Amino acid sequence: MPIIPASCALALETALTLCLCSIPPATAGAATPPGDACSLFTASQVSRVLGVAVTNGQHPIPSSLLLCAWAPAGGAQLDGKKLSVNLMTERAFEVGKTPAHGIAKTPVIGVGDDAYYVTDGGRGTGLSVRSGGTYVRIWVGGFPVEKKQKELEKALALQMLTKL
User: CA 68, CA 33: separation in Å to the nearest integer?
Assistant: First the structure.
């Protein structure tokens, strides 16, 4: 079996997650996530956690309410502080746990019903959280220390869970 470089594996995982996020739940009675990812946080909440003033959440893909991003006025910078949140399906959440070469998957205790970090040295971390029938991925950028990213993602997840 060929070994896939970590950067390719991360790109594949990200593309698969985005595709799976748009697939509706298989069962008609399944719980559905909030309708708008931007409804999960206010600019004030995000500003306090990131330590920098951010604008209201924006949908990077205007036709999709599944993704939302917060950044300082003027837009996100490649290495600037920012938050990205995407609503996921159960399937995308479970696929995200699948081992991939060069990408660490670490369970998180005490956050929602189930949670895990996905860590890639080149991109940082992301925290995926399940609470009931709601599945969300939180990604904080602009912090060079992985431990700090994880702390901020967890803090945001705990705030989010009070709304769900």
Answer: 14
> Cα 156 to chain center, whole Å?
11
CB 43 within 8 A of CB 70: yes
Contact status, residue 6 vs residue 120, Cβ threshold 8 Å? yes
Cα diameter, the chain: 48
For helices 146-161 and 43-50, angle between their N-to-C axes, nearest 10 degrees = 150
Question: What is the three-class DSSP state of 164?
Answer: coil
pTM metric for this prediction: 0.78
The pLDDT tens digits of the residues spanning 34-48 come to 789 999 999 999 999
Q: Which helix (H) or strand (E) holds 140?
A: strand 134-141
Domains of the chain, each with CATH number or no CATH: 6-24+33-161 (3.40.1000)
Report the DSSP beta bridge partners of residue 131: 134
Token pair of 103 as six digits: 């990408």
Give, rounded to a whole angstrom, the gap between the first and last alpha carbons of the chain. Answer: 42
